[in-house]
Amino acid sequence: MENDKKYIVLGDDYKGYPLNMFCVPKHYEDDLEHVLIPAGLINDRIERLAREIIQDFRHEAITGLCVLKGGYKFFTDLLDKIKALNRNSEESVPLAVDFIRVKSYTGTTSGEMTVTGIDNLENLKDKNVLIVEDIIDTGKTMIKLLEILQKYNPKSIKVASLLTKRRASGTGFKPHYLGFEVPDKFVVGYALDYNEYFRDLNHICVINQHGIEKYTTKK
Ligand code: IMP
């Protein structure tokens, strides 16, 4: 049966896999609840997203814009898959890359955000921009980022996110290309961090209370 959703939904009662079924670094063994998405599955899902992107863009050049730091694994793996398709099919899309970091000032009522990293945002003019992000939670970061980038008159902007969180509140923002919808739990691994830890973990896992306490910066 065809699934009308264009992404995989992991339900609230879905617990993934026990940690001892996979290899996780020793230094994180006590800090994780379970493996939510093993690296192999992430890899296979990205292959399909790459195909969809190629089909949509056809021969039009894409500027892949990686949102650092959390998006870097998804970005490199997605681009590798697009490049493989480019090498092996009749149709191919030229690719350019750029990198940004976004910083939100949550204390301010205007919800200000700065974008750094890229040489010059003016370079996005008339380009087909594909923003590549790790996770969309409330959607506020992405909505604000889109607002900022639109001012530089790109030809088009699309968003690819590996994950979105299913949550009762939020903006309801849905990316154009999405890997998985996950329960409203804090997830780490595959470049997603908790206070800069866990980026060196292959699988996407749910952090446990011990992990939160261990890696919460003491003020
Ligand atoms: P939003 O503005 O609420 O959509 O938040 C998006 C950003 O919050 C992401 O780019 C991540 O940096 C961070 N984030 C939200 N949830 C998680 C999570 O479960 N693990 C790691 N980072 C997260």
TrEMBL record:
<dbReference type="GO" id="GO:0000287">
    <property type="term" value="F:magnesium ion binding"/>
</dbReference>
<keyword id="KW-0963">Cytoplasm</keyword>
<protein>
    <recommendedName>
        <fullName>Hypoxanthine phosphoribosyltransferase</fullName>
        <ecNumber>2.4.2.8</ecNumber>
    </recommendedName>
</protein>
<dbReference type="GO" id="GO:0046100">
    <property type="term" value="P:hypoxanthine metabolic process"/>
</dbReference>
<feature type="domain" description="Phosphoribosyltransferase">
    <location>
        <begin position="43"/>
        <end position="194"/>
    </location>
</feature>
<keyword id="KW-0808">Transferase</keyword>
<dbReference type="InterPro" id="IPR029057">
    <property type="entry name" value="PRTase-like"/>
</dbReference>
<dbReference type="GO" id="GO:0032264">
    <property type="term" value="P:IMP salvage"/>
</dbReference>
<comment type="pathway">
    <text>Purine metabolism; IMP biosynthesis via salvage pathway; IMP from hypoxanthine: step 1/1.</text>
</comment>
<keyword id="KW-0547">Nucleotide-binding</keyword>
<comment type="similarity">
    <text>Belongs to the purine/pyrimidine phosphoribosyltransferase family.</text>
</comment>
<keyword id="KW-0660">Purine salvage</keyword>
<dbReference type="InterPro" id="IPR050408">
    <property type="entry name" value="HGPRT"/>
</dbReference>
<dbReference type="GO" id="GO:0032263">
    <property type="term" value="P:GMP salvage"/>
</dbReference>
<dbReference type="GO" id="GO:0006166">
    <property type="term" value="P:purine ribonucleoside salvage"/>
</dbReference>
<keyword id="KW-0479">Metal-binding</keyword>
<dbReference type="GO" id="GO:0004422">
    <property type="term" value="F:hypoxanthine phosphoribosyltransferase activity"/>
</dbReference>
<dbReference type="InterPro" id="IPR000836">
    <property type="entry name" value="PRTase_dom"/>
</dbReference>
<dbReference type="Pfam" id="PF00156">
    <property type="entry name" value="Pribosyltran"/>
</dbReference>
<dbReference type="GO" id="GO:0006178">
    <property type="term" value="P:guanine salvage"/>
</dbReference>
<dbReference type="GO" id="GO:0005829">
    <property type="term" value="C:cytosol"/>
</dbReference>
<dbReference type="InterPro" id="IPR005904">
    <property type="entry name" value="Hxn_phspho_trans"/>
</dbReference>
<keyword id="KW-0328">Glycosyltransferase</keyword>
<keyword id="KW-0460">Magnesium</keyword>
<dbReference type="GO" id="GO:0000166">
    <property type="term" value="F:nucleotide binding"/>
</dbReference>
